[in-house]
């Protein structure tokens, strides 16, 4: 079994020497657990008839939460998703739940095919799942040339909104997801959960986040009927394909999905949608491509969603503030893992200043609204 470190400039993150190892014996000799152990992984893939022969594993995507690897094995091209190294926030990174949700959503929403789910931690030390590779590309900090075509840039926003409206229209009972979460009280639970995460993982005092939390609680809006919500719906978490017309092929990264207020998804999308002249934050940096000429504006996204769903967006500014506040806290959790040495991701090193930037951005939303 083999792996190759991607050559410089190929658009993939480099593989650290202890990220991927061949055998369990090699893993036991490392100071921290590897992300992939190829020998037991090959046996698991054999059992599920996924390819044959050596595994070529490469990290893919711009995600900085769960770990995603592209696997090539014979004629098979699949994607493996697993949690990052510990320490992990409680209830986060439940990849088995994420995979089962996507399996239930097949035919109801734009999801990849789930090929195998593993909750046996003896293989990689954590649960993981394997899904089919979705042809296409992901836009984010840059716009891949394969997705760029004259007159097509406006379709990124249109397709994101249309796919989100489809998701929010899923009949959860028909999809077998009626017990997937508690829709009532979703926003209040989000505030409690993220306050708890901040109390547990904060590495410094940020009064802007405390001030924003108080404002969010004092202005908590009423929610309409609950729908399935993605929880991390942004440009970098979807795959686009281009033939005659650009199309959103699949929504990825479902770890935060539950039943709740659909405007939380729209607020997160618009709060992370970069426009020319915006102050830079870590979240806007992940979608910097949307500053290019021809992309939809945030107002375009809001208006299209309102037309597609008929929902009242009067309180959307509250949801956008919630999104910015949550992003700051979730990234502080990641920054604490970086300080603990459990991740080498250089993006997390930028959060020394990036999290305070988000805290200030959240406070500015309060002042503006």
Automatic annotation (TrEMBL):
Signal sequence region = none
State the UniProt keywords alphabetically. Kinase, Transferase
Q: Which InterPro entries match?
A: ACAD10-like (IPR052898), ACAD10_11_N (IPR041726), Aminoglycoside_PTrfase (IPR002575), Kinase-like_dom_sf (IPR011009)
Q: Name one GO molecular function term.
A: kinase activity
Q: Which residues form the Aminoglycoside phosphotransferase domain?
A: 57-317
Record-given protein name? Aminoglycoside phosphotransferase (APT) family kinase protein
